[in-house]
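Blinded run. Sample ID left blank on purpose so nobody reads anything into the name before looking at the predicted structure. Input follows.
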Amino acid sequence: MDIDFQPAVDVDRGDKDVVIRAEVPGFKKDDIKLDLADGTLTIRAETRSRSEDDHFAAQSEFYESLFVPELRAVHPEEVSADYKNGVLVLKVPRKETPGRGTIQIRDVSESGETKHLNQ
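Blinded prediction complete.
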């Protein structure tokens, strides 16, 4: 018997961090694997069980992949993950993405002199 399900996944964006909650009941912490690459978080969970007489086997699987732009600026070791009572909670610190800012445009005169347009 195979059981595949699509539990609820919520992304809450706060001022200081992003919190991702996923309901994955019926799994142990060691059944769950988390991967992070280029802003995409992949949550995989799999469990198998057999009866003592090997006549009945059950398998449960969960797979969710979601793109969260804020994850592009963090390393996996900066993400905290907790699992309790079937709920996986990940906390991601919000960071500014490198390479953002205002670029000043300069006016270069014929003499090679640089003048800032804001002057």
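Unblinding after everyone has recorded impressions. Residues 114-119 have pLDDT under 50 and may be disordered.
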